[in-house]
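Suppose you are handed a protein chain with no further information: no name, no annotation, nothing but its sequence. What can you learn? This example shows the usual starting point.
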Amino acid sequence: MSVKSSPTPLFDTIEHLSTLRKQAKYNRSEIANNRIEEDYHYAIEFIYSYRGSEATFNAYRREIERLLHWSWLIAQKSVKDLRRHDIEDFIEFCQKPPITWIGTKNVARFIEQSGSRIINPNWRPFVATVSKIAHRKGETPSPKNYSLSQKAVQAIFAILSSFFNYLIQEDYAAINPVTQMRQKSKFIRKQQTQSVIRRLSELQWAYVIETAELLASQQPEIHERTLFIMNALYGMYLRISELASSARWQPQMGHFYKDSDDNWWFITVGKGNKERLITVSDAMLQALKRYRRSFGLSLLPTTGETTALIINTKTRKPLTSTRQIRSIVQICFNEAIERLIRDGFLEDAEQLKAATVHWLRHTGISDDVKHRPREHVRDDAGHGSSAITDKYIDIELRARHASGRRKIIKPE
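A reasonable first move is to predict its three-dimensional structure. Written in structure tokens, the prediction is:
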């Protein structure tokens, strides 16, 4: 088949998926085994089972959609007939897809028109991006510069393996071709040392939180919310999805509560739809009091209080957009960068340009694990094991580098 044109989207958002009718048109004579309808049925059921988490749903939708497009249009096979070598071909295809399949920005798959959901002609299966620093320098994404990261390759393997296991359980496929692959290393590099945790330095965090306080004092009606968000992301290691309201989780003031020992906790639902308790420090409790005072609320929440934790300042309704929270944090980052530049900390300012919201969680964990028992940090962070928490301990790396700095090259 020609790849001069891009395929059309197959799956809508969570809200619309249950009523979505197949809108993509394919020439059935080009498809081996004529299995499109069955493939699509099992795929939509599989994806919809992950509707409990929007982020997970989106990731699974993206990878399964790409697989179906490749399987039907390029390999001309049903997914049930794919074998090990087909998966290898698919990964290689994803690493270098046709230019016509690559977009330069994320857009909705379907849009509203005259009360109906129609295909968005600007949607593409793959999206080229540039780094935050490159974007600030005026660089724009180009399909010619598209690349697939190691993390993205790992996600493909994990999601496709889960999908084929599902097809086997449903008696639709006989084998899992992903598990048959013996040389995943040709696609995934093995990491000899622990990965570097992307976090803020002590100076950068000091400037960021001070900037949030300055913004809050200048425009409290807008930035008291900013200050609380920054405190919560760092002080309780929250993920951005744990602050935004969704069908899965609606964070409320009443999720802060005091136990019988007068200790304060925050309850949240995080990654994997897992509920956890987070220790609320005295400093975080003071941040909560300040935040509530700015809204004219009592200093501390009452038992079962349903007031939304983060609200849209215009509508006064719960904030549902993670994109808006990213924008709020980025405004604070931008102001902190300008202050660092004015004070002569040019290198720190340049490094801060690459920071994302998730760095605040990493920073909070990294700072706390220096003086708190790692098991306590592990449970507050919601890590599945202490091995994950250990990645945030950089004492050995510091000692290793300190000894390495004394190594000479030319004998004295």
